Amino acid sequence: MAFYQFTQTQKIPASIDAVWDFISSPDNLKHITPEYLSFKVTSKSGSNKMYAGMIITYIVKPLLGIPLKWMTEIIHVKDKKYFVDEQRVGPYKLWHHQHKIEAIEGGVLMTDIVTYIPPFGFIGAIANSIIIKKKLKEIFDYRTIAVEKKFGVFDK
Hints:
This protein is 25% helix and 40% strand. The chain is α+β, with helices and mostly antiparallel strands. The chain has a single domain (4-151), classed as Alpha-D-Glucose-1,6-Bisphosphate, Chain A, domain 4, CATH 3.30.530.20. The chain has a seven-stranded antiparallel β-sheet, covered by helices on one side. A hairpin with a 2-residue loop joins β3 and β4. The chain is globular, with a radius of gyration of 16 Å.
């Protein structure tokens, strides 16, 4: 069983507080997800900030407009440092996503590390090489642009 890892970093010209407030709010996920995915948070957590144990449910349409239910659990949170979500129900056999931020000169370095195992064994491995890893890159490239629109472009 093969697993894969995707990492993306972004420098953001903003304060730790501003970036943390934005990325740690489940309501902001729709602002950093491509519109064609029709991403919608369906859970009502009663909190606008992530916390360990929080369950977030979504509907997303990643392929041919077919709605897919996805559930993640926030398993770790260290305020203004990182949080980690893991898929509980969804398209992957394993999905573990680390969101880390750290202060740097002139702003914040944000790092996303996604470790995943596609479904369907050998077929999933083929799908990863043809579709999945490219879609992940496309989604995170979109997020980079969305974050730049929100906070500006890091120019150092």
